[in-house]
């Protein structure tokens, strides 16, 4: 599995950050502009990545104020797992997003840049959404 990670500190209490991330309805605010056809519930989200693929994701596990594990709910172009880890950090919260993807050599060359960019975009967007 290839891992893509991004971490950010947010000046908000842990329960607020966890509460935001645990509801997939909020994740639309974290997506870049090339995402469209978004539909979601608290536990599932479906969307299309422009010129790429349709994805359907679901919350697979939640650990209160610590972790949210998101996995595909339908067939995806490759095996994928998104994990949000949150922890109290002095006056605020540290949020870390880890995307693990099963990529062959060709897919790694094509997708590594966009996946890292997506992970970085989501953590930055999280900080803005909770500012």
TrEMBL record:
Taxonomy, superkingdom: Bacteria
InterPro entries, per database record: START-like_dom_sf
SUPFAM superfamilies, A to Z: Bet v1-like
Full protein name: SRPBCC family protein
Taxonomic lineage from the root: Bacteria, Pseudomonadati, Bacteroidota, Sphingobacteriia, Sphingobacteriales
